[in-house]
Amino acid sequence: MTLNRRLIPDLVAIQAFECAARHANFTRAAGELNLTQSAVSRQVKDLENHLGTRLFERIRQRVVLSEDGQRFLPEARKLLQQTEETMLRAMSSAEARVSLSIATLPTFGSRWLSPRLPDFLSQHPGTILNVGSRSAPFDFGEENFDLAIHYGQPVWARGTCTYLCSEAIVPVANEAMATSAENKAPADLLGESLLHLATRPKLWSQWFEQAGLPAELAYRGHRFDQFSMIIEAVIGGMGYALLPRYLIERELVSGELAVILDVPMTTENSYYVVVPESKKTNPLVQDLTAWLLGQVTNAM
What we know:
The protein is α/β, with parallel strands linked by helices and 300 residues long. The protein contains 11 helices and 11 strands. 41% of the residues lie in helices and 24% in strands. The longest helix has 26 residues, at 67-92.
């Protein structure tokens, strides 16, 4: 990738702009940045010249963002945040012999992957892990991950997908609701409080259809955008939910949650380990892939 370096502004100027925009005052920005007021003003002026537009309107003793300044501010903050995150990742692995960056689905990462990672690290001492949550495919060319966990179909641009596991979901409730649900049939849940995953809103309707029941009433109920939120809502007694067993291993063992009907449903998508084409021959990435496949074999 060839960069046009003339288009890349000085990060000091970006900082000066963001700080002045936040305070709406060059003097207070100078105090925060430990610079003189004239230095901040000069940095902002240089940035305006670089962009070819005015970022501030000077009104009496105040500076107010122009329309172009308002549009540029979110991008400037994003750039500063990305720079900070890049430096923190580099600092965290500075003393490590090797490091790995993993992108994972949020709930899968927190409830299934993270508790198991100490086992991988015990086999690869000295390795530093950077784990980030991603809910959808991204461009490996823009985000520097060595491996991703993907739910869906085995399709990912510039990535190689390896099947990890399928997904079977079951209807669950907390201990009190499960006790009252004894001897219930699937039809008895049609009028109950059902909890839905916003990104997969047809799960309950598909489950009822599999049981040979009409699904018109299956869309009613509360909606959440993460499985982790639904799990906590079920524990709190808000209703019944369809959840993958592997996400609620601890709760099923402790009794906080219980499967109310042994009527599992296999979803049409599966989980995959995705490795960017440029990392396929990396020995540590290969070890991590093999370890993940072994964990699934042992746990599911």
